[in-house]
Amino acid sequence: MKLNKLSYVALLVIIYACNAIGADQARKASIEIRFAQHRFVPTRVEVPAGVPLAIHVVNASRERIEFESFKLNREQVVEPGASIVVQLPALRAGTYDFYDDFHDDVPEGSIVAR
């Protein structure tokens, strides 16, 4: 099959776009935070700044929790034995606290973007 100039340019644009999408997916950071024995583990996580982030929150306890962070502008309930994924855009360098809004006695955690 022969391609004319316009078809060739369109094909190159499609290939470039697919590569850009793949590169963005490869640059996405992913972390897991577990809630067990009435605390988050780990309590401090370092991630690269400027990269989108997926936080997998696993509730390994028998109680309902709420993963909340004012700085990340996120709050989500996690049922006992369930997990959620919190998608975040690229974070600026800084520290972002999170906590369980249902239990005041659970120690806070932090995500540090560097």
Description:
This protein has one domain (28-113): Immunoglobulin-like (Sandwich). It has one helix spanning 5-26, and strands at 29-36, 39-41, 44-47, 53-59, 65-69, 74-78, 83-88, 94-100, 109-113. 19% of the residues lie in helices and 44% in strands. Strand 1 and strand 2 form a beta hairpin. The chain has one helix and nine strands; from the N terminus they run H-E-E-E-E-E-E-E-E-E. The model has no long low-confidence stretch (mean pLDDT 88). The strands form two sheets. It has a five-stranded mixed beta sheet with strand order 3-9-8-5-6, with no helix packed on it. Strands 2-1-4-7 form a four-stranded mixed beta sheet, with no helix packed on it. The longest helix has 22 residues, at 5-26. With 114 residues, the chain is of the alpha+beta class.
Descriptive tags:
1 helix, 114 residues, alpha+beta, five-stranded mixed beta sheet, Immunoglobulin-like
